[in-house]
Amino acid sequence: MVNESLLDILLQNPDEFISGEEISRRLEISRTAVWKQVNKLRNAGYEFEAVSHKGYRMIKKPDQLDTATLIHHLNTKVMGSRIKIMKSTVSTQNEARALAETGASEGTLVVAEEQTGGKGRIGRKWFSPFGKGIWMSLILRPQQPLQYTPQLTLLTGVAVCRAIRKLTRLDVGIKWPNDLLLNDRKVCGILLESAAEDEVVRYCIAGIGISANLDCEDFPDDLQSIATSLKIESGVAVDRTVLIATIMEELELLYELYCLKGFQPIASLWEASSVTLHHQVAVNTLQGRLEGIARGLDPSGALLIETSNGEIVPVISGDVNRINL
Ligand code: BTN
């Protein structure tokens, strides 16, 4: 494990040299110990320019997730207050659930470089190759009845959407309930799983999967025409650590607003980013296919569809697709 404090110092002024003497003074360790720690970071994939009388300057961070760097970028109180980063796991949802069951607090975050059994909605698989995406699950403990949890799916979608826009300027839109799209292709999916007792939430696990830095050829054949990545759309790789930290910030902001003012302000933000509303859509629900115009959200977060006979039908789950008339 790399030394957090040295990393912190080096990340604070990424473009400037910092002398071995200053590092040694700030960390209260000998110059030899500084040199050893710099070498430790080198072995972990960091690259430095070392100039005599000037010191060290970080010139490259490894493209891998580590707790110290993530903590350095985090500017939150609750979200990400505890972090578990894994090289590989079946699903971060399972890991987060196990932590939640043993009492892990709200804001605990599990991130993996790779998932071998990533889960999507409705029993689907979620493609999660090593080092290319953001595969993470966050524990939430809202004190509310179970029936309101769909609102948290929408809240999470808005938070991720805002973070992606902030960092990439890509015009990402939300397809109800939880898909983030770029140029009609899916770039992110959200899976919210809950545990309840007597219809009151014990915890929710907000699972977020973002195809961040995949290239076209990384996607398997069946996803080629329907999925995309931030890198494909923007032309540059995104710093995954910074994106995770920005998502945590947005989530903290919106979750605080939600706990204080309820769902309405979140619904308004969701509606402003929706690519579903005001369009003719077809919805495949467990009860069958429904067609109509997506009119808005009801107070629980259900999508309201106006059918051709003017009836307004709330849809709580299903796949929504726009129909071009
Ligand atoms: C969907 O659109 O179907 C939801 C996809 C959710 C994927 C994320 S990746 C992190 C977390 N772990 C999982 O196994 N699934 C979610």
Write the layout of secondary structure elements.
Elements: H1 4-12, H2 20-27, H3 31-43, E1 47-51, E2 55-60, H4 67-73, E3 82-89, H5 92-101, E4 108-115, E5 134-140, H6 149-168, E6 173-175, E7 179-182, E8 185-197, E9 200-210, H7 221-224, H8 230-234, H9 240-261, H10 264-273, E10 280-285, E11 288-297, E12 303-306, E13 312-315, E14 319-322
Parallel strand pairs: 3-4
Antiparallel strand pairs: 1-2, 4-5, 5-9, 6-7, 7-8, 8-9, 10-11, 10-14, 11-12, 12-13
This protein binds biotin.
Give a written overview of the molecule.
Helix content is 33%, strand content 29%. The chain is an alpha+beta fold and 325 residues long. Strand 1 and strand 2 form a beta hairpin. Helix 2 crosses helix 3 and helix 6 packs across helix 10. The termini are far apart. The mean pLDDT is 93. Bound molecules: biotin. The site of biotin (BTN) has 22 residues, from helix 5, strand 5, strand 8 and strand 9. Biotin binds next to helix 5, strand 5, strand 8 and strand 9.
